[in-house]
Every structure is written in structure tokens, then in C-alpha cells.
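Propose amino acids for all 94 sites.
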């Protein structure tokens, strides 16, 4: 994932996410880095998507409203959310 400063934040160097237009409201933001990222829902739609795909159980761990995602899964996880119509924030929040 690339930020506006063009720094590569993705674990594997992929740049599959498109930047947002100024009018777009993101559904989620990714924060963190290193070995753990947080998928933070910003809209009801993103929260519903998380409930449908990642219920709180032994495999899915939440910190507040944010889902904790290991670095090796984050790019695929983001792509699945985008494929389902969710809009990511264009910036990684660390």
C-alpha cells in the first residue's frame, strides 16, 4: 500500500490499492505496521463486513472495534474488502 508520500507500507511491496479522490469517504483505515496491523472500520458498512467475515472467535482478535491482522495476511485482507466494495483510506496510520 502506498501513501501520498509514495512510501511503500505493504508487507510485500504490492501497490494494488488506488488513491482516493477528495470526495470519497473511506470505509476503513489500516494502522500499525511491522508484524501486526489493525483494520479499523469507519462506517457501518465496514463494521457489517467484519461481522460477516470475521466474527470474534479464536481465529479473529479485536482490539476495541479494530481487527488485528498479521502482516502476512493484510494485503489479501485489504483486497478482499475492496473486492466487496469497501473503500480504504489512502493513508496508513502509524
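Proposal:
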Amino acid at each position: 500500500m502506498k501513501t501520498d508520500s509514495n512510501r511503500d507500507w505493504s508487507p510485500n511491496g504490492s501497490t494494488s490499492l488506488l488513491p482516493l479522490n477528495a470526495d470519497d469517504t473511506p470505509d476503513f483505515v489500516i494502522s500499525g505496521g511491522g508484524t501486526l496491523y489493525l483494520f479499523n472500520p469507519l462506517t457501518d458498512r465496514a463494521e457489517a463486513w467484519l461481522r460477516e467475515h470475521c466474527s470474534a472467535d479464536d481465529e479473529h482478535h479485536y482490539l476495541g472495534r479494530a481487527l488485528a491482522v498479521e502482516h502476512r495476511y493484510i494485503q489479501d485482507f485489504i483486497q478482499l474488502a475492496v473486492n466487496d466494495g469497501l473503500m480504504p483510506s489512502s493513508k496508513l496510520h502509524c
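Helices lie at 44-53, 71-83. The chain is about 25% helix and 20% strand.
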